[in-house]
Predict the 3D structure of the following.
Amino acid sequence: MTRLLAALSGALLSIGAQAQNNLPFTVEPVTSFDQPWAMAFLPDGRLLVTEKKGNLLIVGQDGVKSRAVSGMPDVDYGGQGGLGDVAIHPDFAKNSLIYLSYAEGGTGRTRGAAVMRAVLNATDRPYLSDAEVIWRQYPKLVGYGHYGHRLLLDDEGYLWISSGDRQKFTPSQDMQSTIGKIVRLHDDGSVPEDNPFVDYTTVDAFVDEEGVYGQIWSLGHRNPLGIAFDLNGRLWEIEHGPAGGDELNRIVRGGNYGYPIVSNGDHYDGHVIPDHDTRPEFLKPAIWWTPVISPGNMIVYKGELYSDWRGDVLVAGLSSQAIIRIELDGENAREAERYPMGARIRAVVEGPGGTLWALEDEAEDSQGRLLKLIRGQ
Ligand SMILES: [Ca+2]
Ligand SMILES: [Ca+2]
C-alpha cells in the first residue's frame, strides 16, 4: 500500500511540475479549459480566459475559476470561429472596460469578426454591462476561417485589431474592405484622424460607403494572430502564411505586406505565389518560416524575471508545439531559441512580476491546459 501511494504521488508529481529537459523553465499545469483561445491579466492578478464556444472566465493564479461571465455576445461558433481575444483597457482600474473579439453571424451564411467593448463587473456572479459592438469586419463573408481578430490596446489609447483574410485572398489588397488588414481605432471604436488612408475618399477612383478606408493602418495580410509593440515603440505582427511562409512583420503606417500577390509560401493547391523578393514594392517580412511555426499569438516580454529575455518576442506555436523566442535588433529580428512544449500552444502571456503563462490548444482527447512557466528548474 505504501509502495502504491509512493508510486501514485510520484506519478502526480511528474504530471504536476514537469522539469522538461533543457527548458529554461519548469512547466506547472494550473487548470484546463474547453477550447481556450486567449487570456489577459486583470490588475488584481487574476486572469480572464476565453473559451471558443463563448464562455469568458475569471481565473485565479491558483486555477480557481469563476462562474462564466454573463452578458456575453452571441458568438458564431464553428471552424476557426467563436469567442476570440480578450483585452483589458489600460485604465481598467478606473473604467473596468474590457474588449472581446468574436465571430458574428450575418445574413444568409455570412459571418465576420466583431469587437465588443463592455464593463466587466467582476463580482461573485460576474457580468458585462454597457456592452457595445464597436467594430465589425467588413464585409461579412461565407466561411469559417481566418478571422484574425487579435486585439491590442496601447498606452496612448489606440485599439489595434488584426483582421484576417477570411481565406478569400484578394480582399487583403482591396481598400474597400477591412479583410486582411491591421486596423487602428480609438478605444471607443472611432477612427483617428491621422490614420493613413482617412483622405482616400477624396481620391476620385474610390468610394467609401462603408467608411472602411479610414480604419486601415496596413494591408496585404493573410491571417495575423499576433500583434505587439516592442520596447522602442515599434509595432510587430505575426501571421500564418499559406503552404509555407509564416511571417513576422514590422508594421509601418500605410504599409502593404503583399498578400496574396507575394508570399514566401505557396497556395495549398500547389499554385505558386511569387516570393517577396520578386516585388520589392511590398514590405518583406523580418523573418519568414518554412516549414511553418503556425503562430497562436505573440508578446514582447517586458518583465525582469527573465531579464535576459527583456525586449524579446515570444511566440506561441501551434503546429510547431513550441514557444519561440525572437531577438529584435532595430528593424531586424532573428529566431534565437525554440522551447518544445509537447503540445500545440495557443497563447503565451506575461503576468504580474514578469511571470510567464501559456495556454495549450485543445487536443482531440484533452482540454487545453493553463501552464505556469516557472523560471529555473
Ligand atoms: Ca507578406
Ligand atoms: Ca512563394
In short: The two ends are 31 Å apart (CA to CA). The chain has two helices and 24 strands. The mean pLDDT is 93.
